[in-house]
Amino acid sequence: METVLGIDYPTWWFLVIGGLFSGYAILDGFDFGAGAWHLFFRKELSRRIALNAVGPVWDGNEVWLVIGGGALFAGFPIMYATLFSSMYIPFMLFLIFIIFRAIAIEFRGKEKMLWWRKLWDICYSISSIMLAFLLGVVLGNVLQGIAIGENFQYQGAGFFEFLNPYAIMTGITTLALFMAHGAIYLLLKTEGRLFAKLTFLLKKGMIFFMVSFAITTLYTLLYIPHLSDDFKSNPVLFAVPVLTFMAIANVPRLANKKNYKLAFFFSSLTISLLLVLVAVELYPNLLFSTVDPKYSLDVYEAASSERSLGIMLLFVAIGGPLVLGYTFFVYRTFRGKVKLDDHSY
Amino acid sequence: MDVELLARIQFAFTIAFHYIYPPLSIGIGLLMVVFESLYIKTKKEDYHILAKFWTKIFALTFGIGVVTGIVMEFEFGTNWATYSRYVGDVFGSALAAEGIFAFALESGFLGVLLFGWNRVKPWVHLVSTIGVFLGSMFSAIWIVVANSWQQTPAGYHIVGEGLMARAEITDFWAMVFNPSSVERISHVWLGAFLAGTFLILSVHAYYILKGRYVAISKKAFKITLVVATLASLAQLVAGHASADGVAENQPAKLAALEGHFEKEAAADLYLFGWVDKEKQEVTGLAIPGGLSFMLDQNFETPVTGLNAFPEDERPSQLNAVFQFYHIMIAIGMFLIAITLMGSYLLFKKKLFDKKWLLWVFVFTALLPQIANQVGWFAAEMGRQPWVVYGLLRTDEAFSQAVSANQILFSLILFMAVYTLLFILFVYLLNKKIKHGPYEEAADDDGNDDRPLTKEISEVVTG
């Protein structure tokens, strides 16, 4: 098997996807998080500023979803096909809400009537909440395992099987994580009364996250033993959860010191580390079969051919720095507090 | 209803809806680059205003294109799992290239394009506009490459059997330059240019007819008409090359497009007609031996007909494929005629006196859209019963794990939310057109604080 730096291609691609998903979760995370808080802001101007804080970037953030999804399809087509067809309903709901959210953002500012704006505010906020929740639900199902049988066929029954207690818990935790993250983002983008209100909301968000994260962790340790196998066999990996907890603890500390830039960095780091944690828990598997472990999919079974992976790794090596370059350029152009002008929503 | 049919309906519905927008973005993007370059070069404010105005409309089509595009990507996995496992190795690298090289470029610069007019230097802004436009062109390349591979697979080998079988890439460039990709990409690009330019022509023709923003609209109309004329003429070449390619690579599809049944016989070229599948007859107006002549410059050359293929390897909806294809060609011919006539009158400096012709241009905006839609329907339905031509049948490609109820549920939701999205699109497009190219709108209390440029005083005074 071909390797680069001692790591084989499927594992490299696993890392690439991890990176893309982290990028997506950090970016659309603050985006959804900001949307989830939206109804907590009472004044029309506050809502408008909050919406315009994500205005120039939300579309670009969703690009990471397209690329992440494409990367999963390209590198692990069998995982992609199996996961997406098994989790049909949550993915379809996700699509519907992501479109609905875009509609709400675009529609909101087009009429001046108060009821009109309130209606779209509600749609915007609910879809943001549901999107964060659904991402967590899918993640929960992946962690817990899916009823995959022979020939990669999903054997689960029922419309709502994806909504099991563990998935609900990871869904809520994801929502809480994004809300805390989104609040910090908004703190960077706002001033005055809205800023003051957000400092207060951030505290609530952090508590919400800590509690739901603690419950999810406990649930995982008690009921989903296959996830801690890797840690038992390789104690060095224990560093990952330790680092994660340290990153989490840093966020409120920095927020109290009013150092929101660094707090945002640590909040982003928390999201990445949580995904690293997920990756460590899963690897080398991608999907656990709850029917029989022999039907589980690992990175080697699910991967594309070495040639295909080799080509795509080359793409990433060339394209990755480019993407980072212009993402940086865009954020630099729009740095600082929100100023409403003619081009705003 | 069965799962396969529902999955096909859902895919057809969502892709047809999606395909309203990307061609508009590509076509409008081209003219945005033209207008903005003219502004940088001539420093004339009119071009700046035009670039800004069409950027706003571009933003609308682009945004809808993105969200409806995510749906397409997801549906491969959700509804076509067997297909995704089968083609992932090949199709995946094209999709990955699209994401990394095209889409990220597009969306990355989009923020600067839309919100950066006052934040960056004019030339940096132009670079962003070009970046977005090129990104959209590259997107089209990779998506059409992937689709062309389904029409004319190349650069792969098959590994495994039954449900485990899949195509693996052996030669990336043979996959990219598969026998149909170059002509199909050109065909799709030109179709997109036509969709965009005809929308621009339509809006400015409307302004001229209504006596609003007349001077600036005349400028825009002239420039856009030149591009549209070139595109519609080039489309004749690209379209013909595509048809030649189909004849060579997908004879069953060509036979369906042209309604040709006999195994090996000289084939007629129908201008229009009606296909009776049972009787194997086409009733309509035809040039005898015309198809043979088009393909081989000889009225006698035999062309492979539908009967040369087993019943279960022919497209089933023959009349639909035939009609879609012929509607597309008729529209293409009409677009050539109308742009040539417009260009001639422009040359003679009589164009803007012909009110009726301007009205025709107002409504013609719909025609390239229809041609794009029916063209794709003909291409995709003509490929049936294959999803990957000659390799994987559509009735084996859908997700076994998904039930009919689940698809019905999502299909209804998509119809609801897309209806809303379409209303939004029409409403916003209408609003932007009514608002006009100038930044400052009339205030709510009726105070118009726009600078009284020549064309506005024209409107005010007469």
TrEMBL record, chain A:
The keyword Iron-sulfur does not apply. One of its GO terms (cellular component) is plasma membrane. It is a multi-pass membrane protein. The chain crosses the membrane at residues 12-41, 62-81, 87-107, 119-146, 166-188, 200-224, 236-255, 262-288, 308-331. Its main location: membrane. It holds the Pfam family Cyt_bd_oxida_II. GO terms for biological process: aerobic electron transport chain. Keywords: Cell membrane, Electron transport, Heme, Iron, Membrane, Metal-binding, Transmembrane, Transmembrane helix, Transport. It comes from the Bacteria. It is found in: Cell membrane. GO terms for molecular function: electron transfer activity; metal ion binding; oxidoreductase activity, acting on diphenols and related substances as donors, oxygen as acceptor. InterPro entries: Cyt-d_oxidase_su2. PANTHER family: CYTOCHROME BD-I UBIQUINOL OXIDASE SUBUNIT 2, CYTOCHROME BD2 SUBUNIT II. Belongs to the cytochrome ubiquinol oxidase subunit 2 family. This is Cytochrome bd-I ubiquinol oxidase subunit 2 apoprotein. It comes from Leeuwenhoekiella marinoflava.
TrEMBL record, chain B:
GO terms for biological process: aerobic electron transport chain. Keywords: Cell inner membrane, Cell membrane, Electron transport, Heme, Iron, Membrane, Metal-binding, Transmembrane, Transmembrane helix, Transport. One of its GO terms (cellular component) is cytochrome complex. It is a multi-pass membrane protein. Residues 439-462 are annotated as: Disordered. It is found in: Cell inner membrane. Residues 448-462 have a biased composition (Basic and acidic residues). The keyword Transmembrane applies. PANTHER family: CYTOCHROME BD-I UBIQUINOL OXIDASE SUBUNIT 1 (PTHR30365:SF0), CYTOCHROME D UBIQUINOL OXIDASE (PTHR30365). Belongs to the cytochrome ubiquinol oxidase subunit 1 family. This is Cytochrome bd-I ubiquinol oxidase subunit 1 apoprotein. It comes from Leeuwenhoekiella marinoflava.
